[in-house]
Design goal:
single chain, 266 residues, mainly beta, Porin, 4 helices, 13 strands, 40% strand, globular
Length: 266
């Protein structure tokens, strides 16, 4: 159950939001974890798409231009093109008079479709273990004590956090905005940016591995409160890297997420 006493954001008006302490990330106490602001923009894009009758977010891409401060944010969404079955949207996130992130999204019109059975790859793959059978977990970096770590509840479905490939269930413990119930897409967006952190093969004290983007592809509408990331980190020899996550809900695979990493010694 959501703790309604505190939310990640307070709405100041239809375009401005005040970030709270629950958004703070592990890299710097005055910088947000990218998950909450990406979810905040996802919320705005969902609203813009729904106004056009497009209710499935098929893809959300965040280009993270600068650290997002724990402070006041302004966002704007633009309808780039809306057709019969799909619409393209873009969004801009501002803080302190500077653009801190830029987004694009693809939204689709939902329609029930019947498929033949059996069908290869179906039923959809399942998470390694259900949240009910997964033990409580905590982040293994930055001491596990920062705002975002309190925003989400975590349960370990496979492996070990911050010790290579693993699977972790996430559930919001507080609302994203005010006392609203977050949508399933927003729940995924809050969690998906954690793929590099939970699957790191590097020592947090010796290296930074910040991502400058996040792309989430949804094959269907997520359901429920729990979202599982089955994540792994891959490293190049040029200071680049990739974190990729299979995303699950209680019904099975819901999509995939990728992050481009800049890997640097501290």
């Amino acid at each position: 159950m959501l703790d309604l006493s505190t939310a990640a954001y307070t709405a100041l008006d239809t375009h401005r939001y005040q970030a709270g302490a629950l958004t703070a990330g592990p890299w710097h106490p005055e910088h947000q974890h990218a998950g909450p602001p990406i979810a905040l923009v996802c919320r705005a894009i969902e609203q813009a798409a729904a106004a056009q009758g497009l209710t499935h977010i098929a893809r959300l891409t965040a280009n993270l231009l600068r650290p997002v401060p724990v402070g006041e944010l302004t966002l704007a969404v633009v309808d780039d093109y809306v057709g019969r079955n799909a619409g393209h949207f873009s969004a801009q996130l501002m803080a302190g008079g500077k653009e801190v992130a830029r987004f694009t999204a693809l939204a689709q019109r939902e329609q029930a479709v019947q498929f033949p059975s059996p069908l290869a790859g179906h039923p959809l793959p399942q998470a390694p273990r259900s949240p009910e059978h997964s033990p409580a977990a905590r982040f293994g970096f930055a001491g596990g004590e920062f705002g975002y770590a309190r925003l989400v509840e975590k349960r370990l479905a496979q492996g070990e956090i911050s010790r290579g490939p693993c699977a972790v269930w996430f559930r919001l413990q507080h609302p994203l905005v005010g006392q609203e119930t977050p949508s399933p897409y927003q729940r995924v967006a809050v969690a998906a940016d954690s793929g590099n952190g939970i699957s790191t093969v590097l020592d947090y004290a010796a290296y930074s591995f910040v991502n400058s983007d996040l792309t989430i592809n949804f094959l269907r509408r997520p359901i429920g409160e729990w979202i599982c990331l089955e994540a792994r980190m891959l490293l190049g020899d040029n200071g680049g890297g990739l974190a990729e996550s299979a995303l699950y809900d209680s019904a099975g695979l819901v999509g995939r997420a990728t992050q481009s990493l800049a890997v640097r010694p501290r």
